[in-house]
Amino acid sequence: MIKKFDKKDEESGSGSNPFQHLEKSAVLQEARIFNETPINPRRCLHILTKIIYLLNQGEHFGTTEATEAFFAMTRLFQSNDQTLRRMCYLTIKEMANISEDVIIVTSSLTKDMTGKEDVYRGPAIRALCRITDTTMLQAIERYMKQAIVDKVPSVSSSALVSSLHMVKMSYDVVKRWVNEAQEAASSDNIMVQYHALGLLYHLRKNDRLAVTKMLNKFTKSGLKSPFAYCMLIRIASKLLDETEGGHDSPLFDFIESCLRNKNEMVVYEAASAIVHMPNCTARELAPAVSVLQLFCSSPKAALRYAAVRTLNKVAMKHPSAVTACNLDLENLITDSNRSIATLAITTLLKTGSESSVDRLMKQISSFVSEISDEFKVVVVQAISALCQKYPRKHSVMMNFLSNMLRDDGGFEYKRAIVDCIISIIEENPESKETGLAHLCEFIEDCEHTVLATKILHLLGKEGPRTPQPSKYIRFIFNRVVLESEAVRAAAVSALAKFGAQNDDLLPSVLVLMQRCMMDSDDEVRDRATFYMNVLQQKQKALNAAYIFNGLSVSIPGLEKSLHQYTLEPSEKPFDMKTVPLATTPITEQKTEIAPVATSKLPEKLAPSRQDIYQEQLASIPEFQGLGPLFKSSEPVQLTEAETEYVVRCVKHTFARHMVFQFDCTNTLNDQLLQKVVVQMEPSEAYEVIHYIPAPSLPYSQPGSCYTLVRLPDDDPTAVSCTFSCTMKYLVRDCDPNTGEPDDDGYDDEYVLEDLEVTVADHIQKVLKPNFGAAWEEVGDEFEKEETFALASVRTLDEAVGNIISFLGMQPCERSDKVPENKNSHVLFLAGVFRGSHDVLVRARLALADGVTMQVTVRSSEETVVDVILASVG
Amino acid sequence: FDTEPSLYTVKAVLILDNDGDRLYAKYYDDTYPTVKEQKAFEKNIFNKTHRTDSEIALLEGLTVVYKSNIDLFFYVIGSSHENELMLMAVLNCLFDSLSQMLRKNVERRALLENMEGLFLAVDEIVDGGVILESDPQQVVHRVALRGDDVPLTEQTVTQVLQSAKEQIKWSLLR
Question: Domain B10-173: which topology?
Answer without folding.
Answer: Beta-Lactamase (3.30.450)
